[in-house]
Amino acid sequence: MSYTQLTEVERYQVHTFLKPGYEHNRMAEELNRSPSTISRELKRNRGLRGYRPAQAWRFADKRKPSHRHTPIEEVT
What we know:
Elements: H1 8-18, H2 24-31, H3 35-44, E1 46-47, E2 50-51, H4 53-63
Antiparallel strand pairs: 1-2
Helix pairs in contact: 1-4, 2-3
């Protein structure tokens, strides 16, 4: 199973779906995502003022691991 984060557009759609009170299952269906993905997104990226897409992106970005590779020097 391949995992991909929600895109910026999807995060704004989730925010839009929250206003009229969509259930997680309905949001997932609309976005062609798993309901657990929506549930985790809302749980992990909710701030003091609720779910906000730009803030959600910052929270998710902070959790990303840093993949800085140090080049190995060749011994001659």
